[in-house]
Amino acid sequence: MSLVTLNNLTIHHGGNPVLTGVNFNIQAGEIVTVVGPNGSGKSTLLRAIIGALQPSSGQVVRASGLRVGYVPQKLHIDPTLPLTVRRFLSLPLRVTNAAATQALEQAGAGRLANQQMAGLSGGQFQRVLLARALLCDPQLLILDEATQGLDQPGSAAFYQQIETVRQHLGCAVLMVSHELHVVMAASDRVICLNGHVCCEGEPEQVASAPEYRALFGSGTQGALALYRHEHNHSHDQDCTHEHHDHEAAQ
Amino acid sequence: MTLLDSFLIRAALAGLGVAIAAAPLGCFVVWRRMAYFGDATAHASILGVALALSFQTSIFTGVLVVSLLMATTVSTLSNRGYAMDTLLGVLAHSALAFGLVAVSFLQGVRIDLMAYLFGDILAVGRLDLAVIWGGALLVLALLWWRWSALLTATLNPDLAYAAGIDPRREQLVLTIALALVVAVAIKVVGVLLIAAMLIIPAATARPFASTPERMALIAAAIGGLSALGGLQLAFALDTPTGPTIVCLAAVMFALSSLTSLFLRGNRI
C-alpha cells in the first residue's frame, strides 16, 4: 500500500515554479532516494510531503494515520535555548527513559542523553536527530541531506546506520542526497529530479540514463562500485546484456 | 481581605503576577529572537490607552485590542519577507508617536502620561489586581497547554509540521499571550519597560539552565525577585517603582553574566 502519493504536484515559490507535474508514490518498506542538482526542488518535495508547503496544484495524499519521522537538512538551535539531548527527544511527545535510550542506541548515539545539543559534533547531532525521528515508530522515515557537513567515512557510517534501522523497524525511507554514489547503492528506487521527474528506476538504471548523465556527467557512476562491490562496472563502455531499459550514453 | 487594603501589598502582588507571567513568555521571545517584536507591541499600547479613554472603555480592553492588532500585523508581515528590523523600527515608534498624539487630542480628561509610560504600581487597586492575576494566569495556562508544540515550532517549523503541529497556530498563541502580558503589565511597569520584564529575567536565567523548563522557572523566580526587591528599593530610596524594578533585574543580569564568564573561565 502507498504511504504517500503525489498526484501531478506543482509548487510555486515567489511566482516561479519549483516543481511541475510531479507524480510520485512510496510503498511501505521501500527505500527511495531523490537526487538532483542544487535548486532542483528536492527539499521542496520533502517539505510538501510533510505538509510544510501547500501545493499550487495537484494533490498530496498521505495514508491515514501515517507516522512520519523527519530528519531535517540542518537544525539551528539558538544559543539562548538550553536543550539536552534527552529533552530534545521528548519533543513534541514525552517519551520514557527506556524508549529514549533505545532510540539513541538504534541511531548509534548511546550515552549522549545528558549532553547539551549545542555541544554535539556534526555526526553526533545527525544521529540524535535520527533517534528523535525513530521515537514515533515511523512508517516513513524522511531524511533531507542528512549527512551535510559530515566527511565521507562519517556519511557512509551514517547511511549504514539507516540501513540497519530500516532492517530493524521495517519502515520506508525517503531521502535526498548530493552524495549519489553513497546513497544510490542502498536504494530500491532512485528518482532524478530537476523541477520535474527526469527519470526514475533502480540505481543502475538511473545512473546510466541519459537524463541523469546530462545532469551529473558520467563520472559518478564509477563511484557506485565503491559501495556495491558485487557490481562490476568494467562493462560500462560496451554493455551488451540488458540490465536496464534506458539506452546508456555511449 | 484586610491584607489587600495595604497599597504596598497590592503593589507587591501586582508586580509578582506580571513577573511570573512575563518570564516564561519572555523565554520564547528570547529563543525566537522576537525582542523587538515585544517592544513594538508594547509601544503600540499607548495608542490603546488613548482609544480606551476616548471611547470610555477600560484601559485593559483598549490596550489588549491594540496590542493584539499590532502583534498580528507584525507577525503577518514577518511571513511576507519584509526586512524585519526596519519594519519593526517603523511600526514600534510610529505606533508610540501616534499614541502620544492621540492622547493629546483628549479634551477634558487630564491623564498622567507618565503613569502609562513608566507604570504606576503603587496605584494598583483591587480590580486592577484581579485583572492582572486573571491575565497572568491565562497566559500561564496558555503556555502550559501549548508548551510542547510551542517548543517544537520554536526549534524548527518543519519538525513541527512533520509531527502534525501547525507552527503558524503556535505563533498565534504567542501573539495572544504577548498582547495579554502587555495589557496587564502597563499598569505595573509602563509601556516603555514591558519588554525589559520579558527579556531580562530570561536572559539572566540562561547560564544556569540546562533545559527550557528550568530556564522558564529560573526566569520566573528572577522576575519575581526583581519585582519584590525593586518595590522595596523604590520605597526606601523614593525612586520611581517601575524603573527601579527593571534596574534591579538589569543588575541581576550583569551578575549572572559575570558568574557565567567566571565559571566558563574556570572550566577551561
Describe this structure in words.
Chain A: Residues 231-250 are annotated as: Disordered. Chain A: Keywords: ATP-binding, Cell membrane, Ion transport, Membrane, Nucleotide-binding, Translocase, Transport, Zinc, Zinc transport. Chain A: Residues 4-219 form the ABC transporter domain. Chain A: It holds the Pfam family ABC_tran. Chain A: InterPro entries: AAA+_ATPase, ABC_transporter-like_ATP-bd, ABC_transporter-like_CS, Metal_Ion_Import_ABC, P-loop_NTPase. Chain B: InterPro entries: ABC_BtuC-like, ABC_TroCD. The complex is a heterodimer of chains A (250) and B (268). Chain A is α/β, with parallel strands linked by helices. Chain A has a domain at 78-137. In chain A, 32% of the residues lie in helices and 24% in strands. Chain A contains nine helices and nine strands. Chain A has helices spanning 42-50, 85-89, 97-106, 122-134, 152-169, 180-184, 203-207, 210-216, 219-227, and strands spanning 2-13, 16-27, 31-35, 57-62, 68-71, 140-144, 172-176, 189-193, 197-201. In chain A, the strands form two sheets. Chain A has a six-stranded mixed β-sheet with strand order 5-6-7-3-8-9, sandwiched between helices. A three-stranded antiparallel β-sheet of chain A has the order 2-1-4, with helices on one face. In chain A, strand 1 (2-13) and strand 2 form a beta hairpin. In chain A, helix 3 (97-106) packs across helix 4 (122-134). The termini of chain A are far apart. Residues 220-250 of chain A have low confidence and may be disordered. Chain B is an all-alpha fold. Chain B has a domain at 7-189: ABC transporter involved in vitamin B12 uptake, BtuC (Orthogonal Bundle). Chain B has eleven helices and no strands. Chain B has helices spanning 7-31, 35-55, 59-78, 84-105, 113-118, 126-155, 157-162, 167-185, 194-205, 212-237, 241-267. The longest helix of chain B has 30 residues, at 126-155. Chain B starts with 6 loop residues before the first helix and ends with a helix. The chains are: A alpha/beta (250), B mainly alpha (268). Chain A binds chain B through residues 47, 50-52, 68-70, 72, 75-78, 80-84, 87-88, 90-94, 116, 136, 142, and chain B through 30-33, 148-149, 151-152, 154-165, 202-203, 206, 209-215.
